TrEMBL record:
Its EC number is 2.7.11.1. GO terms for biological process: maturation of SSU-rRNA. Belongs to the protein kinase superfamily. RIO-type Ser/Thr kinase family. One of its GO terms (cellular component) is preribosome, small subunit precursor. Keywords: ATP-binding, Kinase, Magnesium, Metal-binding, Nucleotide-binding, Serine/threonine-protein kinase, Transferase. Residues 64-291 form the RIO kinase domain. It catalyses: L-seryl-[protein] + ATP = O-phospho-L-seryl-[protein] + ADP + H(+); L-threonyl-[protein] + ATP = O-phospho-L-threonyl-[protein] + ADP + H(+). Residues 358-368 have a biased composition (Basic and acidic residues). The chain holds residues 1 to 377 of 457 of the full protein. This is Serine/threonine-protein kinase RIO2. GO terms for molecular function: ATP binding; metal ion binding; protein serine/threonine kinase activity. Its cofactor is Mg(2+).
Length: 377
């Protein structure tokens, strides 16, 4: 399954300008009126009108006509803005196949201007079952004050900031390359998700390595909060890489200890059940962890005030709560009607437990890369 970026070829500079104007207008309008798009873009009405028609044709904009005349970005429209910016600075020039689809992100193979194989993670925090949450007033409240656009960007910015800090401190994480809006570019890890692994040469060593990563994170003032077999990649030499960081919290968070224990226990359970480990595992107590070099403060300083963090956490809770309660409910967002990138056509990689063993090899698939993003401008 590819991300269809072919329309990028046909968009003019003015079209992208109109698209950007709609994005800006969405800061305080759910639907952006044409007059506002004209004034933000600084283009004449004729140019804006042509741009709007073109963008609508390619499903980058949704046009609302009932009761209120205005436009808003679709998922694809927002993707295009981020991809155009990343391609302008050569951070990606090609996009390949999809590696994974989760409830909160889509991950694709990509290539940088230097030909390096990387991964782009497109955060889709607003993607949840609209039907499933129809009755939940909280969701609507949230939707209004913190839109999918804002939350997805916040998730990406947060993940990128954590990746940078962790990579600098030599944690086993992908190398952060770039970030724009809701898309993070990072190195492609050559490995399989741990959940797909049937056998390990030395499971006790792998488990202890992972537990020591959890402890080192806590020493640096951080708790991963989703440290399980779905977010750990392992290569043929049994070296691990930890991924998926937007939900990470500071050890000064009220629930940090509970999150830490949940992480450690879920690792412990996984290794015990799947590999029959027991006494070889060195269990760790949160109270014994000494906070040495706080990275949480560094990351918080990079734009995460309490307000952002609060909104972000409750959005994650809402989505996860809904997902857990509504397992198997068909996922449909209101924007699906406009032909946005599909949401939930494939099953989530989170918690399925039935994933085919070693079915996806995370190695570059060069032949099938689709070179289109480079062609804008
Ligand atoms: P989600 O929030 O959707 O769970 P993840 O960051 O866990 O997102 O990524 C989803 C899947 O994409 C992972 O299970 C993994 O298979 C793949 N993936 C993510 N990042 C990388 C990477 N840097 N290298 C290789 N594969 C990756
Ligand atoms: Mg994940």
């Amino acid at each position: 399954m590819k991300l269809d970026v072919t329309a990028l070829r046909y968009l003019s500079k003015d079209d992208l300008r109109v698209l950007t104007a709609v994005e800006m207008g969405m800061k305080n309008h759910e639907m952006v009126p044409t007059t506002l798009i004209c004034s933000i873009s600084g283009l004449r009405y004729g140019g804006v009108d042509r741009g709007l028609r073109e963008l609508h044709k390619h499903k980058l904009l949704h046009h609302e006509q009932r009761g209120y005349d205005g436009y808003r970005l679709t998922n694809l429209g927002y993707d295009y803005l981020a991809l155009a910016a990343l391609s302008k600075r050569d951070s990606i020039t090609r996009i390949g196949n999809r590696l994974g689809v989760g409830k909160e992100a889509d991950v694709y193979h990509a290539e940088t201007g230097e030909g390096e194989h990387v991964v782009i993670k497109i955060h889709r925090l607003g993607r949840t079952s609209f039907r499933a949450v129809k009755d939940k007033r909280d969701y609507h409240k949230h939707r209004h004050s913190a839109s999918w656009l804002y939350l997805s960007r916040l998730a990406a910015t947060r993940e990128y900031a954590f990746l940078q800090a962790l990579h600098e401190h030599e944690f086993p994480v992908p190398v952060p390359i770039d970030c724009n809006r809701h898309i993070v570019v990072m190195s492609l890890v050559d490995g399989y998700p741990l959940t797909q692994i049937r056998e390990l040469g030395d499971p006790a060593k792998v488990c202890n390595t992972l537990l020591s990563v959890a402890v080192r994170l806590a020493e640096h003032g951080l708790v991963h909060c989703d440290l399980n077999e779905f977010n750990i990649l392992i290569n043929d030499d049994e070296e691990v890489t930890v991924i998926d960081f937007p939900q990470m919290v500071s050890t000064s968070h009220l629930d940090a200890q509970a999150y830490f224990q949940r992480d450690v226990e879920s690792l412990y359970k996984f290794f015990r059940h799947k590999f029959g480990l027991d006494e070889e595992i060195q269990l760790v107590e949160y109270s014994e962890v000494k906070r040495t070099e706080p990275l949480d403060v560094e990351v918080e300083a990079s734009g995460f005030g309490e307000k952002e963090l609060g909104e972000f956490e409750s959005a994650i809770q809402t989505h996860r709560g809904v997902d857990q309660n509504q397992e198997g409910v068909e996922v449909e967002t209101d924007s699906d009607k406009d032909g946005d990138t599909e949401a939930g056509g494939e099953s989530s990689n989170r918690g399925s437990g039935n994933a085919p063993e070693k079915s996806v090899r995370n190695s570059p698939d060069v032949d099938r890369l689709q070179g289109t993003v480079a062609e804008i401008n």
